[in-house]
Amino acid sequence: QVQLAESGGELVQPGGSLRLSCVVSGDTFLRYAMGWFRQAPGKDREFVAAINIMARSTRYADSAKDRFTISRDTGKNTMSLQMNNLRPEDTAMYYCAARPGTTSSNMGDYVYWGQGTQVTVSS
Q1: In sequence order, what are the residues at sequence separation of 6 or more whose Cβ sits closer than 8 angstroms to the Cβ of residue 123?
Q2: CB-hemisphere CA count at 13 Å for 75?
Q3: Rounded-to-integer distance, Cα 36 and Cα 9, Å
Q4: pLDDT tens column, 6-34
């Protein structure tokens, strides 16, 4: 059984930075493409970023382009999301997700999910 555990969320001021991490256990990390999604109160969960198995391909939501960077470290079974120039509208619960095969921005394509880590951007 694959398990995902996010960390790194906290309260940060607008313009600040955070680095979220997602540790994968229970199966071979290299079997899975990985993604980050977020859900703000009262809103649907939305795609943020995704990375393929060999980290050679990434994709981003328009809201994340030029501010967020997704990466993965095979040796540590960890995926990360570096978030810079954070805005109040980035406030949400952030979830990591895994799926066998290629990257996808479709939430329904992901099989495994973490419990989420809260990011709050406020002064």
Answers
A1: 13, 14
A2: 0
A3: 13
A4: 999 999 999 999 999 999 998 888 889 99
Give long-range contacts, CB 8 A cutoff, 24+ apart: 39-46: 39/92, 39/93, 39/95, 39/116, 40/89, 40/91, 40/92, 40/93, 43/92, 45/95, 45/107
Nearest to 53 by CA among 29, 77, 80, 21: 29
Tokens for 47? 């795609």
Which of 80, 62, 89 is closest to 19 using CA atoms? 80
As a whole number of angstroms, the distance between CA 120 and CA 18 comes to 10
Report the distance separating Cα 15 and Cα 4, nearest Å. Answer: 28
Residue 52, both tokens: 């393929």
Residue type at position 67: R
Q: How far, in Å, CA of 46 to CA of 94, rounded?
A: 10
Confidence band, pLDDT 50/70/90 cuts, at residue 66: very high
Count the alpha carbons within 13 Å of 108 in the hemisphere toward its beta carbon: 0
